[in-house]
Amino acid sequence: MLEAFKSLPEDPDELRSVSAQMLQHIQSQAYQIEKLKAELHGHRKARFGAKSEAMDQLALDLSEDDEIAQAAKDQHTGQPPSDDEAPNNKRQHSRKPLPDHLDREDEVLSPGEACHDCGGALRQVGEDVTEELDYIPGHFVVRRFIRPRMACTCCEAFAQAPLPSRLIERGRPGPGLVAHMLVGKYCDHLPLERQSRIYAREGVDLHRSTLSDWVGRTTALLEPLGEHIGKLVRAGPALFADDTPVKLQVRANTTKTKTARLWSYVRDERPWCGAAPPCAWYQFSVDRKGEHPANHLAGYTGTVHADGFAGFNGLFGKGKVSAPLIPQVMRLDCPSQIPVVPNARAAVHPAG
Length: 352
Prior knowledge:
With 352 residues, the chain is an alpha/beta fold. The protein folds into 2 domains: 103-221, no CATH class; 224-351, no CATH class. The protein has helices at residues 12-77, 175-186, 192-201, 208-221, 223-234, 291-296, 326-330, 344-348; strands at residues 103-108, 122-136, 139-152, 158-159, 238-249, 257-267, 279-285, 303-306, 321-324.
């Protein structure tokens, strides 16, 4: 095509025709160039951008976990949340009212009709309204606790019903919303930042730091339940033990991590039709030393199913029964390593 443009015609009509062809050719090349640029950008992003984006997400997750840990610590010490319910926020935000478009459910808490001091009749002189944001599967709802302020017509004594027990004192999340957040984060793997954006689409403005504070304080309340699950696991005649590596942030405001451990202990009696329901107990440690499983199962005398990790050797002492897992048995060179059981190979291989 370019060869045809080297010699331009002298006739004006032919020259206009050639010019139109050249313009069309240039436009086609420009379109092809933009297309190749877009493809090149996509390849570069796929090859060189993934690591940086992963680090950004890692930094976000670590920051989120750090806020949750701090909130759990505050819950243990009894420190109430600040007015914006986000004590780690550098920017202080005033508490925003709950959106008007959300459904309201009123619950009137009355102190009764008679004065507790003299028995006289009570008349209403005002009321206090406390709003709690809750979540019913599929939509948000604002539960309003209305507490009339009553005054005795005889002795002028005041009476008012107390607020019901709440998960977070001075906080606004209801139990349904908290359960929804915990299931989303720990079962469905939805970071709180993503949950915050999901709630924003429904007109509910909840900052990630606020959600972190709520989750941290709630997890502190669930610790007695975790301890009870541990007792149930260790009360069984047999359990399964294993560990898995997890990333641990070295210090705050950094993406540097080290490898910590999450220890899992499972009681499952379904294979032999046991009466107890299956349950799992998790414990955390900053390293993989064998002292951790030994401390977790101190005093346990049942059968422990575990792999060949040397750290589990402390579980197989006096009064404890060890049972290797099938994958560890299959690694043995049968029958040379198990000469006393000539049919061991036939017993192991069908399990695979």
